[in-house]
Amino acid sequence: MPALLLPEEIEALFTREDGSYAFARWGRPIAPIVFGVADETLSTVKGAVEAVMTLAGHKMTDTDPELGANLMFFFFREWKELLEVPDLDRMIPSLAPLVNRLSKEGASQYRAFRFDNQGGIQAAFVFLRMKGPLAEMPAETLALTQAVQIALVWGPQAFAEVSPLAVLPENGNTILRPEIAGVIAAAYDRMMPVAANDASHALRLYARLQALPEGTA
Questions:
Q1: What are the Cα distances from residue 140, in Å, to 46, 47, 51, 134, 152?
Q2: β-bridge mates for residue 165, sequence order
């Protein structure tokens, strides 16, 4: 049986700052694109997304029929660089004020989601300012962390204290923590909804976790 979180621990993963519950998963195949990195890093990022989606049992595709690419990663050194990206202000409302705020805060990363009529994730935008600790992180670790962060809409405190990744002491390899892998797999169960705003959803995730086969997480 995979590592299990308690229902209240699962609920905390999807709790907003105002105390409300908000969960969403992708409702369509993921078509990723990566800007601002060398080819080897590009393949690392796409490989990490594919690994997490394979765990989830969710499909990937080369092109989204509506958006072309529906998962966009942007790597850069200064937030102001985003203002020069063609048409980005059409995809991210109030881009200039957002860039100004993130720059003043010294933020290293930001994620934005777009949702479909069922509440499922329709598109995601990942912005990574490659300075300081983020720039020093191994590419594989950074890519896997970001892939986990976009697999679901997590609450703001989900990984504030504990990373979704773990390092195996026997060989130093970085892996997705089994209990988080289990939540992702349960969340993408075909019997589960693509979105939920009631905390009872956490109990359903817990029940699905108990039903997952050995080795899923």
A1: 11, 9, 12, 12, 20
A2: 176
- Cα separation of 52 and 121, whole Å? 16
Q: Are 95 and 83 in contact (CB under 8 A)?
A: yes
CA 14, CA 201: separation in Å to the nearest integer?
10
Write down the H helix ranges in the chain: 7-13, 39-56, 88-91, 95-105, 133-136, 139-151, 178-187, 200-211
For the chain of 217 residues, list the mean pLDDT of each consecutive stretch of 10: 79 97 97 91 93 96 92 96 93 94 96 96 97 90 96 96 89 90 95 97 94 59
3-class secondary structure per residue, 157-216: CCCCCCCCEEECCCCCCEEECHHHHHHHHHHCCCCCCCEECCCHHHHHHHHHHHHCCCCC
Mean of the per-residue pLDDT values of the chain: 93
How much is the pLDDT for 79? 97
Two tokens, residue 50: 């594919």
Each residue's pLDDT tens digit, 99-150: 999 999 999 999 999 999 999 999 999 999 999 888 899 999 999 999 999 9
